Amino acid sequence: MPPLGAGKSAPLLIQQLQYYLPTSGSLTLPTPQFPATDAVAASSSASATAPVVVYRSIHELHDHAPQDKAVEVAFSAHVHRFISDVVKTSYAAAVKAPSADPTPETTSSLSATPAVDQPISGDQLAAPSEPSHQPEPPAESELPTLRLVCSICRYHFTITLDPLHHHHHASASTTASSSSPADCGTAPEKLHHFIPVSHQNLTRPFDPDLDDDDEPNASDDPTSTAAQREITESEEFKLSCYICSTVVSVVVRRPHISRRIADTFTADSIKSRIETFDAARRARISPQQDQVAADEQQPQELPPISIPTPNSAYNTFYKILGDPLTTPSGKAPHSIRIDNQTLNTKLHPEIIRRFGFIKNEESGLWQPPLVNENTRVSKQLKRLLQEARMEIAIIVRALSNDTENPYNISTDLELPALRSFLRCSSYPKYARTVAYVEPTSPVSLRFASLGATPDFSDSLLLQTFDRQNDCDPLNSAYYLECLQQLSTTRASEELQIRVVELQSLGALTRGDVRDAYRDLGIDDPEAFNDDSLILGIFKARLQDAPSTGTKLKAALQIVANHRNSELLRAYLQAESMDEAQSYKVLAVEKETDDELIISSYEVNLREVPEKRDVLNSALLVLAKKRQSPKLLSFAELNNLTGPVPDVEAAFAVLGVQSAMEDSHLLTVFDIRVSDNPDEILTMRNAMRAIMIARKSEILRTFLESGTIDLNAASVGSETEPVGLRNIGNTCYLNSLLQFYFTIKPLRELLINNTDDSNTNSTAALEQDMESALARGEKRIGGRIVTEWEIRRALDFVRELGGLFESMICSSEGAVAPNQELAYLALVSSIEAWEDWQKIQQQQQVVKADQVMTDAEEEGVVQGPATAEESESAETEIASLKEDVKEDVVMEDKENLSPIGKTEEVVKISQLSPERQVLGVLPDGVTNSTGNSTASIVIEDDAVEATKETEESKEIEESKEIAEPPPLPKRTSTTTTIPPSVPPRNDSNMMFGSQQDVTECIDNVLFQIEAALKPERVDSDGEQIDLVKDLFYGKTQQTLEVRDGSSSSSVRTKEERFSHLIVDVAAGPRDIYEALDACFDVETVDLDGKPARRYVTVLELPPILQIQIQRVQYDRGLGRVFKSNAPIIFGETVYMDRYMDDGEVQKRREQMWAWKEQVAELEKKRAKMQAVLDTVNQLSGEQTLRAARSWLRRVQEATAGLEEVMEEEQRQEADLLGDEDKEESKSREEEVLLAEVVEELEAEMAEVASAGPQVDAEIEALNKKIQAQFSDLKQLGYRVHSVFIHRGQATFGHYWIYIYDYENGVFRKYNDEHVTVVSAEEVMPFAESASVGSGDYDVTAGTPYFLVFVREDMTEQLVEAVRRRIREREEDQDLIEL
Q1: What is the pTM of this model?
Q2: What's the average model confidence in pLDDT over 708-736?
Q3: Residue partners of 257: CB distance under 8 A and separation at least 6
Q4: What distance in Å separates the CA atoms of residue 170 and residue 1, rounded to the nearest whole number?
Q5: pLDDT band (50, 70, 90) for residue 1120
Q6: Is the pLDDT of residue 977 over 60?
Q7: Residue 744 near residue 1357, CB atoms below 8 Å
Q8: What is the radius of gyration, based on Cα positions, of the chain?
């Protein structure tokens, strides 16, 4: 028989009914949990006067989550005082044998009271002859029913017995074919033992006029309307006896006369209604009096209305409800006029609608309900009116302080009747007199946990204990602990002997379970929700102390049984079974192949299913020993290897980063399994988690077959973007291409470039190329584009458009960019031309017989070579190959920093990164160091003057790099014009030298522009096209030169920008703090005069790009390094503060003034904290403190020698004759020492007080700075893409996060893997957070390029998923067949 759950005896059920708090549902909860101490838990949500019982949740048996461990249930603040729920009727009538026409006292309640706003219609109250109504089923009316009401809270309790109910809880041995209520009552010990079966609430809409505001089930939402709120009208519980077939139903119904209804019967409410009614009455009679006055008759005065008492009003209500009850069947009760004075003054007239009265406006009458018809609705309404009259009788009696009983209700407590009804009037009780024990006390809770009450005898308690264990064996340890505690409390030998017997048979208490956890080193079991963690702890302790293996396995067995853990049990079984036993269990030989082993397993499982655990263990032993992918996959498919971890935990198990490629993961997996074969299941589970997350066909193929197929293709999806395969350290390029693919206008333009009808098609551009070049209209980046560059760009956009088309239509999960596209994207036209020229020059010295293949390709015929020439040629060819290898083989992009080549970093690091993007200063402008250069700021202010010449040389070199040499003029000789991609061997593609990140972006955008027809030409001749419209904005640099007088001159310069550069070299920065460095004011030198320089934005691009300068140069170490400091940004950045606007400029000026104050205060703080004692590394304050400490030690050391020194001085003075002089000198020294100490202490106090004051001033100013532009949010840009680099300055890996606005998710594009990630992974630091240097992982990936899209144009500009999968050719062939 399966476990049923904890039960309760009939006496305990009665006790819980006495303390039941309606709507708490505690009657169906499992057994209560007694606290660890004698202090009872208190519930914060319960009433201060209501006791609280902590119940063990049923989820504890299967789920170990701490939040599911316990349920706190408040009991009623008062003990229910049960009286008979019948007016003028004794208990005997309530339980007498039912008749053919049952009385209301023996009819069970069938449903909740009708809602006020949904009155019962007339057809529901029709005579029984109407065919639309069915008589009430007689079976329900024949059940013995006891109706009680609490004379304190007026809640109604209906208890119904179904002694012949057959149910699945009773076992075959205890259920007789003719069971009766006496099955558990023939002997005194055999009490009913009830198991909670069900609990349901009947609700109705909340009526704000008639229901209580503090209704427990009412909605807590203050905005909810009355129609949205519901109250619990009644609750019904079913409990089934474990021994016999008796079922007890308990229905608890709320009072029909709520607090709001009762409030309408107060003296003030009655008086208010009389005044309202009297005013309305006089208003109606006024026109008649006017007519009487016109006829010169004496008007009739209205008599005053007397004010009745509340008791009188209740009596009227009682009579109104009683009239339908006394009306015979087939007759209509007396109607009441709507304007009836008594009804409208003594009662709130709308109250009677709650009790089935219908208001008929046409007839002007209230129609009472028909309650004596033989229909379900009539009987419901009859019971409703009877219970309401009972409540009125209770209220009237309470108003008289229980001195009057005008309705002659029974005031006898009905507990004896309830005990008799549940067959528990007499049972063996404890021999000693038991004082009253609070039901919520620890002792009472122990009894309740066993389903008993404190007055049970020892033998009856043991019988109840056995029943509880039979019903709920999973918690036998808890019940044994309860029995052990009670045996001590009672000092009962009978109970103590039983406890010892059970423990000798291996029974455990919760203390034993706790000890088992402690043996495993687990102090808090609730913190371990995953059984695999416990298993890992066991393995670690076993490895550390093999001699304790027996004890640890015993502890693990106890924990496995307590947690009901199949994982732990399977492990213990598997550990105890060796390979030979496993073959024997599966009935196979050692030479049997994997397929037959699986077949044998399945056959044995079908024939002997109870051996499942043993068979599973045997299969796992063989799978691990053989390391068979087939057996392991079969075990995994049948959930035999434990749970699969989440993907982050999987990477941690393997000890790798989440960006590692599949091929490298397989290598790591092989190493891990080779080092520790016993962990193969754990490692495979980790690999399965990664396979599922990545949807990797490579990993799936490996796990299923053990083979490594790096060409395994993942399956594409219509709802997910495709990945891009890495074709040779192209992870950065893949990220860039994924970004451009999501830019909808750009993507559509590139895909459609092959359409001849398109004005930007390849054919149209080639036709227009000659005229454009002749007119000089093709000017990009300030220079004219050559014909060869245009042809090269056309090849590039053709390849890129083809890739984008493949990304849309491919049926695979990832596609590969071709080598030509990679070369054109990564190698600029200038470098390609230079490489081609170098190859041509070196090929001129190669002899014809050694380079025949190249000569044939170039169309050049050369004569045969001599032996000497051949030898010389071979040497030259080897040299050429070495040069080409050095110059044109593609660099390892994964081993490059975000900024690029090391030799260029030194020069770039000398520039202010924020200023690089904004161009150079006008002629003659120098920075504050005095160097006449472009916009260059030396980062190290302490650079010696002797380095100025060297730095100037480096600056000139950087200018030469920034200004590329002119390309060769076009020529008609085709043999001197290189192809877009040089000839190559397909097995060894060679690329030009690698650019940095921004150079690669510039190269891609330049080629796209070069392949586009200009939409218009700007005033400076620059081509304006889609790229310019999408990515380019315009800034204005302003120079204000003051000559010492009030006048000043202003110079401005406008410049385009495609991206802004921010710096994080100084540590973590907020996005606005970083951007401020681009646009804030700075002082420069112009012709020997100081000038203010700042930048504003004239035009913002729809797509805003921000580069984060991370690679810096360490002059002390003479090498580059990468700053991993985070840049803090949120989902939206607002650019209003940087616009060229007068009002905004005023705010900026104020902010700049605050920043100057902050800078001065920080200098002051740095000075106070500066190291003065370089030997001991002490600051100024620390130096003062050390000096004071030393002087005090001097004072203490000399104090003890004062008398000796004075005596020596006196003797010396006697000899020399100058005693007075020496004494004066000694006193002066003492005074001087004290004064020095006092001065030191004063200086220390001043320094100590100045520090916090400076900190407070800096904090206040920073708050002003942060809030200065907080209200400017008109130009919002939403985050779209975040380029990530992980690694150091000379190596690393790249990926990109892209936001899908349509689906509201971030995706991580890591080469061929595309996965959905959380926003916290993309933006791990809260916006405007303060991040210290120790608060972030320096080894984690860091953003180096951010892309934002104007928030009102996201739908127009970006689309993350664009898929239209075409059927593969082989699939189409199958369809055609």
Answers
A1: 0.47
A2: 79
A3: 154, 388, 391, 392, 395
A4: 9
A5: confident
A6: no
A7: yes
A8: 46
